Amino acid sequence: MNRNLLTMALLICGLSVNGQKKIDYVDPLIGTNGMGHTFPGACVPHGLVQLSPDTDTIPHNINGTYQPRVYEYCAGYQHRDSSIVGFSHTHFNGTGHSDLGDILIMPVTGDIKFNPGTAENPDSGYRSRFSHATEKAWPGYYSVMLEDYGVKAELTATERVGIHRYTFPKGDGHILLDLKHGIYNYDGKVLWANLRVENDTLLTGYRITNGWARVNYTYFAITFSKPIRGYGYKEMKPMLYNGMWRKFDIYRNFPEIGGRNVVAYFDFDLSDGTPLEVKVALSPVSASGALNNLRIETAGKNFGQLCAQAGQKWEDALSVIDVKGDSDQVCNIYSSMYHTMINPSVYMDHDGSYRGLDQEIHQADQFTNYTVFSVWDTYRALHPLFNLFYPSRSKDIVASFLAHYRQSVHGLLPIWSHMANENWCMIGYHGASVIADGLDNVGAVGQQIVGNRTGEQRIVLKHRQAILDTVADTAFFRGVQHGFYFFNAHRLCHAACLHFELLLHLRRQALPFAAQFSSLPLHIRSQRMPAPVYPRTAARPADIQPARASVMLLQSADDSRPPAFVGHNPPSSGITAGNSPTAHGSSIVPCADNSVRRYFVVAACSFCPCHPHTE
Question: How many helices (H) and strands (E) does the chain have?
Fold first, then answer.
């Protein structure tokens, strides 16, 4: 379906946005109070950077004891708060657990404080009071007045760079760089942070955290539009071992900084009254990668130009639909569309290098690598939306899923993954549904998945959504060698249309056209499935026998028509492992389901009481 022909209309008399900017109807503040778990800051569609204010520092735990209020700060920001801690560069959007909040920057004046202080007593730290009356937010832009310092803060972003513009009162000012700050933070989350002062306008470094992402590497490069006059840092907890570094005065104007609780400061002469611009580029690979991202995305462009560029990217992304309705309805639709395009996020450098699930550095081959896959939340609606409106993005997301699968020591698609880590949150195996829907709806995705090796005939498989509907509470895993099998004790699958890698002997002997499934993520190494593992709370139905399965390939007699599978009992004419077709089109089931592709695989399982074994 051509996305340019898609029009979403509310059949209500009222305002039409045709001819007007779509971004004018987006309100990034929607969802920022209570449990909405959204943030108001600046980003571009699916960027690695989400530059936004954090309004408190509630830890995930204190000495191992969970702090329930932390859940309110999954996105770092609560609209009801009256102070801002600073502006960090990575945020989740709408999730029910959290992490990130990397590389926090705060502009300050006067005496330097290294602790953020508390919401009850902002003067005890470097945070600042603010008012919503001075707060502005639209796609790609955020601004607010930091009342305690008289500093106007403005934010915008590219895919990999957060851009800050701070208008200070005339005089001296400071930039704080807090490398211990984080969302869902706790004492010990930062495993190490490193910072180098390369010259009087350039910093590079990285930090490694142990949070929801068990090992998260965030590399950065930071440039200032004015020269640094002086700098230093404080290690907020005593170092138990400092080696021969103790021979130096490392806390003042020493260009190599390292620690687990580092808060650094940088002094500037701001007497000319011009704003200070700060650009912070991120990379999952290296500081040099971050610096290259910085140069490619921002070289020769000032804050105003980059802000306009970000706004245009959002306008283009939102222009796939036209909405009619009153102003609230139009705002609701475009704000919702906006929030669908924050995650997943690009997770690779401009040169195509990215950190994989195996923590090795890989090169993306003709695809954009993404991260932040909350698949249990997104497989039902978000990914089908991408298939309809942004098919090229779906292609890249599926390719990213398959890269994750290849790098996984378990041989699995993402469950809930972010920043080159599988965090194992929630249940089920919904990545298979995302791939299947991409195969079924986006031809380019299918081509990407099945490959294009010369001389091989490839088969696209259909994955039935009904099978995944049985996953919710009773998913089970029988080892990587046998793959993932899902069932529900009260609603057993009748025919599992899954992505299977056929047996080698089946490929070579039973199928005349040598079907190849080497790139698909689910495996069967034997024709017989292992016996299912029943949930402890469910009684094993008396009429269910140990699970066995045979694989049938159904192929259409006419290339223009899909095969058919009618009812739960496979017809006797069906093709099984022992009844392979002798020619294209023999032993064909009459077509009944035009939504199924020409080739697919059926596993006929004997543990379904209404489905006879067909081996």
Answer: 10, 31
Task: Tell me how far CA of residue 125 lies from CA of 53, 79, 110, 148, 597, in angstroms.
Answer: 16, 20, 12, 11, 62
Q: How many residues does the chain have?
A: 615
Q: Which residues pair with 345 in a beta bridge?
A: 371
In angstroms, the CA 112 to CA 25 distance is: 40
Buried b (16+ CB within 10 A) or exposed e, 357-382: beeeebebeebbbbbbbbbbbbbeeb
CA distance 568 to 493: 10
CA–CA distances in Å: residue 124 to residues 85, 115, 184, 237, 563: 12, 8, 22, 18, 71
Q: How far apart are CA 534 and CA 518, in angstroms?
A: 30
40-75 per-position pLDDT tens digit: 999 999 999 999 999 999 999 999 999 999 999 999
- DSSP string for 583-607: STT-S-PPP--TTS-SEEEEEEETT
In the prediction, which pLDDT does 56 show? Answer: 96
Tokens of 132: 């919503």
Position 204 pLDDT exceeds 60: yes
Other Cβ atoms less than 10 A from the Cβ of 274: the count is 12
Q: Does 521 have pLDDT greater than 80?
A: no
pLDDT category, 531, cuts 50, 70, 90? Answer: very low
How much is the pLDDT for 440? Answer: 60
- The pTM assigned to this predicted structure is 0.74
Output b/e per residue, 130-152; b: 16+ Cβ within 10 A.
beeeebebbbbbbbbbbbbbebb
The total of other beta-carbon atoms located within 10 Å of residue 5's CB is 6
Average pLDDT (232-254) is: 90
Span 366-376, mean pLDDT?
Answer: 95
Q: Which of 394, 392, 414 is nearest to 405 (CA)?
A: 414
Torsion of CA 595, 597, 598, 599, to 10 degrees: -130
Q: Give the orientation angle of helix 443-450 with respect to helix 431-441, to 10 degrees.
A: 120
Report the Cα 606 to chain-centroid distance in Å: 38
Q: Which residues contact 160 (CB under 8 A, 6 or more apart)?
A: 47, 48, 49, 281, 282, 283, 290, 293, 294, 297, 346, 349, 350
pLDDT confidence of 442, banded at 50, 70, 90? low
Task: Give the pLDDT confidence score for residue 373 in this predicted structure.
Answer: 96
3-state secondary structure of 475: strand
Task: Supply φ then ψ for residue 105, to 5 degrees.
Answer: -120, 140
Q: Give the angle subtended at the CA of 11 by the CAs of 10 and 12, to the nearest 5°.
A: 95
Contact 262, 179 (CB under 8 A): yes
